[in-house]
Specification:
The complex is a heterodimer of chains A (about 230) and B (about 190). Chain A has about 230 residues and is an all-alpha fold. Among the domains of chain A are: about 50 residues, no CATH class; about 60 residues, no CATH class. Chain A is built from nine helices and no strands. The longest helix of chain A has 23 residues. With about 190 residues, chain B is mainly alpha-helical. Chain B has a single domain, classed as Orthogonal Bundle (Rna Polymerase Sigma Factor, Chain: A), CATH 1.10.1740. Chain B has eight helices and no strands. The longest helix of chain B is centred in the N-terminal third of the chain and has 23 residues. Classes of the chains: A mainly alpha (about 230), B mainly alpha (about 190). Chains A and B meet through α1, α3 and α4 of A and α2, α3, α5, α6 and α8 of B.
């Protein structure tokens, strides 16, 4: 490659590295430095290249001059700006405008101020905290309350199951459609399930209520039939 | 023969004015406006290509700089900081405006005489072509050219304004001119 050929891998002519800044400064309108001028004298192609590019910058600068609106334009602009320095700004402020924070109060009031400030500046944190507390409360309530109770329907009491369990309370609504035989079968199954699951046998009232309330769900899920099938196997 | 363009103005008192303006000195800020409004206006005009919009955005840039003057960390970087505000406003304006609009025809200095009209029209068309090709440049190259040619900032100040190094500003300027030449040669 001859010195006058352009290096295809770079956008600059094969300039010495120390002349690259001088080249760009010359593009931008500065006079070529003595070293750059000497190099340009030895590389006429690069000199023509520089001349073409600087003509572009001259054209842009000339257009700038032609678009100059005159001194009065800028005098008026200056006056308008100063007149509005203290006016409420209609500009849309996309950045955060910090305001000086007041000095925190002492003691308990200061703590409340800090808490209010924290929650105000971190609404997401406050919301997440409140939701977490609510969820924990719901979970604790769900775990503490064993079952949900429904108003007992006004139906006559059923006969006791063959397992000789004490009389059970009124049926939940989900079992009202069952006849006494079906219900007795369900109660028998429920008792076996309670025993299988290690349910309490001493506290009959509670176990009866649990069994009856659970029967609604178990029956709907077909669990009892499946459990019976397992037993048969 | 290479014509020398005017060098970027470097007011020696701008740092001092910036510190006083940051402290709330309206007179000092007025001097800052007087020093920077013209280059800022031309830089914004190059980007939005509409004189009324450029005036409005220049005004808003200075007002925003005044209201947020406490955020200026280094008064010596006042010029780059104000230009950064102006450029952001110009970018947002162009984005929000959508398709560009240009100055009205009466601003294009159309020739009134019949003789010599062809040459004038050709010159006018060249200017329009130049503007059109500038718009075809990548945003960073266009901004660097605007800041160097129209705002007459140094490459160091251009780097401060755009958040890049001085070297990157130089390279973008060179690449932009090369690309501009390619576009014009491709006609």
């Amino acid at each position: 490659m001859t010195p006058t050929q352009r290096d295809p891998d770079t956008l600059l002519p094969p300039l010495p590295a120390e002349l690259e800044d001088a080249w760009i400064d010359a593009l931008a309108g500065a006079s070529p430095s003595p070293d750059l001028q000497r190099w340009l004298d030895q590389h006429p192609d690069a000199a023509r290249d520089l001349d073409q590019l600087t003509q572009l910058t001259h054209a842009l600068a000339a257009e700038r001059s032609e678009r100059h609106p005159g001194a009065r334009f800028f005098d008026a602009l200056h006056d308008d700006i100063l007149a509005q320095l203290d006016a409420p700004q209609p500009v849309e402020l996309r950045g955060f405008q910090p305001t000086p924070a007041p000095a925190p109060a002492a003691g308990w009031l200061g703590l409340m101020d800090r808490l209010r400030d924290l929650l105000g500046r971190r609404p997401t944190l406050a919301y997440a905290g409140a939701m977490s507390l609510a969820l924990l409360a719901l979970l604790a309530f769900a775990l503490a309350s064993p079952t949900t109770t429904t108003p007992p329907p006004t139906t006559p009491p059923l006969a006791s199951a063959p397992s000789a369990q004490p009389p059970h309370p009124a049926l939940p609504a989900g079992l009202a459609h069952l006849d006494p035989v079906e219900l007795a079968a369900l109660q028998e199954q429920a008792s076996r399930i309670q025993i299988d699951l290690g349910g309490a046998e001493e506290d009959d009232d509670a176990s009866d209520e649990e069994a009856l309330a659970s029967l609604v769900g178990w029956n709907n899920l077909g669990f009892l039939a499946a459990h019976d099938a397992d037993d048969a196997e | 023969m290479i014509v020398t363009l005017p060098q970027p103005p470097t007011p020696p008192t701008l740092d001092h004015l910036g510190a006083r303006a940051q402290a709330g000195d309206r007179e000092a800020f007025g001097e800052v406006v007087r020093l920077l409004q013209e280059p800022l206006y031309f830089a914004i005009l190059r980007l939005v290509e509409h004189s009324a919009d450029a005036r409005d955005l220049t005004q808003r840039a200075f007002l925003q700089a005044w209201t947020q003057r406490e955020r200026l960390e280094n008064p010596a970087a006042l010029r780059g900081w104000i230009f950064a505000i102006g450029l952001n406003l110009a970018r947002n304006h162009v984005r929000d405006r959508g398709a560009r609009r240009f100055d009205p025809v009466e601003d294009l200095h159309l020739p009134a005489r019949e003789d010599g009209a062809d040459a004038d029209l050709e010159a006018l068309e060249d200017k329009e072509r130049l503007r059109r090709y500038l718009e075809a440049l990548p945003p960073r190259q266009r901004e660097v050219i605007a800041l160097r040619i129209d705002a007459e900032l140094s490459f160091r100040e251009i780097g401060q304004t755009l958040g890049c190094s001085e070297g990157a500003a130089r390279v973008n300027f060179h690449h932009g001119l090369l690309r501009l030449r390619e576009l014009m040669a491709g006609e």
